Amino acid sequence: MTPVVVVENVSKRYMFQTYRPSLRHELGQMIARLLRRSTQGAWEQVPFWSIRNVSFSLNAGDTLGIIGSNGAGKTTLLRLLSGISEPTEGSIHVEGRFAPLIGLGAGFDYERTGRENIFLNAAILGIPLLEFKERQTTVVFISHNLEAVKKLCARTIWLEHGRIKMDGPTAEVIEAYEAAKVPGHDTAAG
Q1: pLDDT mean values, one per 10 residues, the chain (190 residues)
Q2: Distant-in-sequence, close-in-space partners of 129: CB < 8 Å, separation ≥ 6
Q3: HSE-up of 73 (CA within 13 Å, CB side)?
Q4: Bridge partners, residue 47, by sequence
Q5: How much is the pLDDT for 139?
Q6: What is the reported pLDDT for 190?
């Protein structure tokens, strides 16, 4: 089966400005001011890699959960998959329409099954239900709500510091993720 989503060695870098004064820099600034020369100040561009070397593929009908702590790169990955942002390195290919489904509590009804929630969100996004049911819909679900991920997704990726920490069956990934959050637990094995 040909994958409908292919993410190959994707990295995303953002550039931040930071103020980095030093005694040597400040001395240079004073001399430049005395000589009335323009200076750029102590501001410098500092790269921040939100995600690094992320690769995975999805077939039609797959359900993928993406979990991780705040700042792990989940939202950046969603922005890249949606085409809102472009990767700095690597490539992304998405066959067909991609509609983000992010579990923020809004729009996710815990009394419904995962599929029913997908149909509900499709309706909210204006996708006709008949069209949605006729296709093998591939789902990428990003959430901090691990119970919702368990209910909806067969496979899960755990992102940590912008890299894939673990990729596998949802129950196994969530078990490892929860164990790693326990103080004193050795996470070096994962």
Answers
A1: 93 81 71 68 77 96 93 92 92 82 57 73 71 74 88 94 97 96 56
A2: 119, 122, 123
A3: 25
A4: 15
A5: 83
A6: 39
Q: Report how many helices (DSSP H) and strands (DSSP E) the chain contains, helices first.
A: 6, 8
Q: State the number of CA atoms in the 13 A half-sphere of 156 facing the CB.
A: 27
Task: Quote the CA–CA distance of 93 and 99 in Å, as a whole number.
Answer: 14
**pTM, full prediction:** 0.73
Residue 56: which of 173, 145, 136 has the closest Cα?
A: 173
Do residues 103 and 143 touch, judged by C-beta distance below 8 A?
yes
Q: How many residues does this entry show for the chain? A: 190
List of residues 6+ apart from 141 with CB closer than 8 A: 63, 64, 65, 66, 101, 102, 103, 148, 149, 152, 153
